[in-house]
Amino acid sequence: MNSLERVLAALQGQPSDRPPFLLNLSLYGSQLTGAPVKAHFADPAIFAEGQMAVREVFGPDLLLSPFLVSALGEAFGSRAGGPPEQAPNVRAFAADSASAALRLPLPDVDGHPRLLYLRETIRILSRKYEGEVPVIGLLVSPLDLPPLIIGLEAWLDALLFRPDEARALIDRCTAFFVQLGTAMLQDGATALALTANLANRFMVPAEVVAGISRPALERAFGQIPGPIIVHHGGCPLVPHLADFAGLPQVVGFLVDAGEDLAAARTTLGPGPLLLGNLDGPGLADLTPGQVRVLCERALAAGSRDPQFILATSGADVPLGTPPECLQAITESICLAGGGLR
Q1: For the whole prediction, is pTM greater than 0.90?
Q2: What is the structure's pLDDT at 302?
């Protein structure tokens, strides 16, 4: 089986030669190629080279577009920056309130340079690995776009106290989300992976989830012409999965490290993929032996679930992570199922 066949088997609940696995090595590709991080997150050819190196060295079954949500904020006029060894983050917001954000023009998904950077990486990788390796386009839901445009505090103020303004901004962000998500799929992305933190009761009250967030996700996801994976985004997802169950186009959920996979499956029933649950950012502080132990536990927890994909959760795996720790994940997968292809 190749990687695409392996992932499709998991999606259909069918057996495969070994468990599929995903590593969030968007940033780490620059370490493998030696490219400066700034160039890595500016030049699509350089980023794609990094993902090709990730595939060559560690053999994950899914590859990623840049983990660079700040680019979405930049498209609306926010400014990004940060330390040279990290992916850029939003440093200054394009507007200071939901009402001000409603006056911003919608970004041109066919013309804005930061969006073209994201899209071109997908085109390069999908051409290279067509029929062999799924390429996942990383995005955020329309509910999680406003924090990149006006900041989280201003967005929570709108969601909690100005619901009409919040709904108007969500509608505007939904138009952009559908345009960009559709374009990414047309560029060759196999699926989209995105956060929906402002639809999680860990972040907002149940009445906001029921009255604003869930209906907004139903409208937005229903307009996306391809599969979607919902990422926990740093929030506990399993206790709130019922709020996300049955959303249009959603084929999987990536849960945080340590979350209960069996409980997740009980809530969801058969059908969606479950991805997780290794702590990617924490790998830098472990030895290869400790990583193997964690992999064995995670694989054991998912061993009875044919729709489980071992994946690093959380943010990007840090640059300082020893390659031996990542190789330990690959070796654990090989031991679990007989080798890599």
Answers
A1: yes
A2: 77
